[in-house]
Amino acid sequence: MMIDKFNTILKELHRKSPLVHNITNYVVMNNTANALLAVGASPVMAHAIEEVEDITSISSSLVVNMGTLSPKWVEAMELAMQRAKELGKPIVFDPVGVGASKYRTETALKLTDSFTPSVIRGNASEIMALAQISNSTKGVDSTADSKNAISAAQALSAKLNNTIVISGAVDYIITNELIDKVTSGSPIMAKVTGMGCTATSIIGACIAVDSDYHNAALCAMEIMGLAANIAEKKSAGPGSFQMNFIDALHQIQTEQ
Amino acid sequence: MMIDKFNTILKELHRKSPLVHNITNYVVMNNTANALLAVGASPVMAHAIEEVEDITSISSSLVVNMGTLSPKWVEAMELAMQRAKELGKPIVFDPVGVGASKYRTETALKLTDSFTPSVIRGNASEIMALAQISNSTKGVDSTADSKNAISAAQALSAKLNNTIVISGAVDYIITNELIDKVTSGSPIMAKVTGMGCTATSIIGACIAVDSDYHNAALCAMEIMGLAANIAEKKSAGPGSFQMNFIDALHQIQTEQ
Amino acid sequence: MMIDKFNTILKELHRKSPLVHNITNYVVMNNTANALLAVGASPVMAHAIEEVEDITSISSSLVVNMGTLSPKWVEAMELAMQRAKELGKPIVFDPVGVGASKYRTETALKLTDSFTPSVIRGNASEIMALAQISNSTKGVDSTADSKNAISAAQALSAKLNNTIVISGAVDYIITNELIDKVTSGSPIMAKVTGMGCTATSIIGACIAVDSDYHNAALCAMEIMGLAANIAEKKSAGPGSFQMNFIDALHQIQTEQ
Question: How far apart are CA C247 and CA C243, in angstroms?
């Protein structure tokens, strides 16, 4: 049944090519745009407060990633998220590095509380910081095993009534009592910048075509894991992995 | 004769290594800098209003791309374009996503009307939106065939007395009554972010060494198409295509 | 002995995985983050004045690169550098394009004079411009041989009592009377955007684990040269070189 859902989402991505509005960080923009194109979606990157509401209005979903946040960008995120809520469009939020600075923590809590993203994806440290569970964060990389964040994610999901994704060696997709896990993937992913951000964007594509957000997030993580497994076999290191991963996403899309 | 003009431009790029000033979007900066280096030009990315006039002054051409526009950047574009006009330096303008938001449309029209870029390159939807011909835009990707934009491009070219490039499966280079087309290229280009932006930058390199802007734009699109054909044969998907495309540009430059 | 020091630094990078705070330019963020991950460091990119002091405080070193500078970013650089000085954390500074505009020159001189970076890396033109030796700069690429900048670098080093790295076909690492050179590397590096910025970031990683900054900078340039030699053999052009270079960095780290 999982295979059926997986293929249905890939077919819908191909058929609809949903416009996915990304307000994301400078580091990963190129990679996430290419990942979205490879799975069949149509990415648009726009962050000016003068236009984000217009762009969200014509898009099928909104991806908000605070990796290189600053006040103007946060203001744009708020406007876009407000518009998405008004229009009933799904939002995925990536609280990159929450816990690493007071500003990141305050911003992540404010965006989460004000706009209740449909899905939130982070590594274990980030999910624990967002749930305000004490933990040590080290910059933007996790210092904890994803398993340790399950109860934090469950508490968050119960409070927000949404879907929380903890990514790591094992990924957990959590919606209230429901827990799914994805064990595919590759250790080399931790050596490539922005693989988590790419996962968030692909969740953004999947929630654009499947209103069951838990299922959409699960399929997105399965797509990530499958592409990583394909890419790993062809790669001599993190440089070639980054390239082969995009090829693999495209291969999965075209072979569905 | 086309081959002669093509080789002359490649030789001039190699001989002069023109400095090309880019005010462009966050998504493509790395790729377009590498594409410019590969064809023999010397890219400089600078956007602060405190320095754009200085940088334009020492450059041989100016590339303005509004892919991730915001007010400060638009102000910088205006200063740089004004300086380029004063110094008689060629400008290529890429109205990314014009039509997708009121802000993009207003900005594109303002920059076009105020500074009359030497060359404008866009996809069919963008050229039609810029010519204020009714059409449906979907984010930054075209929903129309490039052929449908020919009359819009001709009207624009006649009004502005400049060169308009419509890129797509077939590219059209239009200067008043003169129409050239380029049929080389690869369908995979639509699956790689920023290939249009790369075309715009390479036009920026070519107009820096050939004052016949129609010819320069035509050669730039031929370089794009040839590199795409070379890269396509070696590529397993859009990831490897992006890499092989840069290698192919460099190969074309070194083998001219 | 060089080999020993080199391996010691690689082992320390692997063991400590130091957090390296980067305030750098838009063009190279993805590449430098991947280069830092490949050599074993943990990169964080953050530039908001609201958080840079917090991020510097939890980091082991600070990388400041002014490639796409603007006033808000310069303000953030100042705050982060001030905090790093207070906490005794090493700083590496990359004065990209100093000399190409009045704004760049003023900013580079101000940051250098106010905060005395532990290491400064630039090409020959940049080091001469920073030492206020008359020279012609062309955008962000050097117009001079690295050898011509040795006396400028020595004067700078004597004045600042720090380490100056001139990169080029031959790299010079200069601390007062001490001069080391690195002759490995590849001519193709000049055709890939941001290789100098990558060198600066890897210096940032090495000074995080070795308080002998001259030695750390020398090892960083040796790592660059060695990775370039490995990558060059596998590459068909600058596109594949960029990818193979990251793979090679990772290979050097894992095989130390």
Answer: 7
Cβ of B72 under 8 Å from any chain C Cβ?
Answer: yes
- Is residue A188 very low, low, confident or very high in pLDDT (cuts 50, 70, 90)? very high
- CB-based burial of residue C106 (10 Å sphere; 0-12 exposed, 13-18 middle, 19+ buried)? middle
Task: Return the DSSP state at B141.
Answer: B
Distance from CA of B249 to the nearest CA of C (A): 9
Q: What are the pLDDT digits (tens) for C190-222?
A: 999 999 999 999 999 999 999 999 999 999 999
Q: Quote the mean pLDDT of chain A.
A: 95
What DSSP state is assigned to residue C117? -
pLDDT of residue B100: 96
A48 at interface of B, judged by CB pairs closer than 8 A = yes
**Number of CB pairs, chain A paired with chain C, less than 8 A apart:** 102
B47 contacts C237? CB cut-off 8 A:
no
A-proximal residues of C, 213-252, CB under 8 Å:
242-251
The neighbour count for residue B4, using CB atoms within 10 Å, is 8
> Chain B contact for C70, CB < 8 A?
yes
pLDDT at C4: 86
Residue of C nearest to B234 (CA): C236
CA–CA dist B64, B74 (Å, integer) = 9
Closest to C198 in 3D by CA, of C51, C37, C11: C37
A-chain residues near B190 (CB < 8 A): 37
pLDDT tier for residue C2 given thresholds of 50, 70 and 90: confident
**Would you list the domain boundaries of chain A?**
2-248
Element (H, E) at B174: strand B171-175
> CATH homologous superfamily for C2-255?
Ribokinase (3.40.1190.20)
Q: What is the pLDDT of residue C137?
A: 58
Q: Taking CB atoms and an 8 Å limit, are A34 and B238 in contact across chains?
A: yes
Identify the DSSP state of A184. -
Contacts of B97 (CB under 8 A, 6+ apart): A44, A46, B66, B67, B104, B126, B137, B139, B140
ipTM of the complex: 0.95
Whether pLDDT at B135 is above 60: no
Query: In this structure, what token pair is assigned to residue C57?
Result: 């405080």
CB contact under 8 A, A243 and B243: yes
Chains in contact with chain B (at least 3 beta-carbon pairs closer than 8 A):
A, C
What is the DSSP secondary-structure string of B91-127?
EEEE-TTTTSSHHHHHHHHHHHHHH--SEEEEEHHHH
The domain over range A2-248 is classified in CATH as 3.40.1190.20: yes
C39 touches chain A (CB under 8 A): no
Whether A101 contacts chain C with CB within 8 A: yes
- The residue type found at A22 is N
Under 8 Å between Cβ of C23 and C77: yes
* Cβ–Cβ < 8 Å for C76, C52: yes
Look at the block and give the residue holding tokens 């009207």.
B155
Enter the tokens of residue A191.
């050596």
What pLDDT band is residue C158 in, cutting at 50, 70 and 90? very high
| Other Cβ atoms closer than 10 A to C178 | 13
Instruction: Report CA Rg, chain A.
Output: 16
- Per-residue pLDDT tens over the stretch C20-69: 999 999 999 999 999 999 999 999 999 999 999 999 999 999 999 999 99
Q: Does B27 touch chain C (CB under 8 A)?
A: no
Residue B5 forms contact with C (CB below 8 Å): no
Evaluate whether C112 touches C160 at the Cβ level (below 8 Å). Answer: yes
DSSP strand pairing (B42-45 vs B19-23): parallel
| B3 — pLDDT class (breaks 50, 70, 90) | confident
* Between B219 and A1, residue with greater pLDDT: B219
Tens-digit pLDDT profile for residues B161-200: 999 999 999 999 999 999 999 999 999 999 999 999 999 9
Span C154-163, average pLDDT: 97
Q: Which residues pair with B45 in a beta bridge?
A: B22
**Which of A50, A51, A250 is opposite residue B238, by nearest beta carbon?**
A250
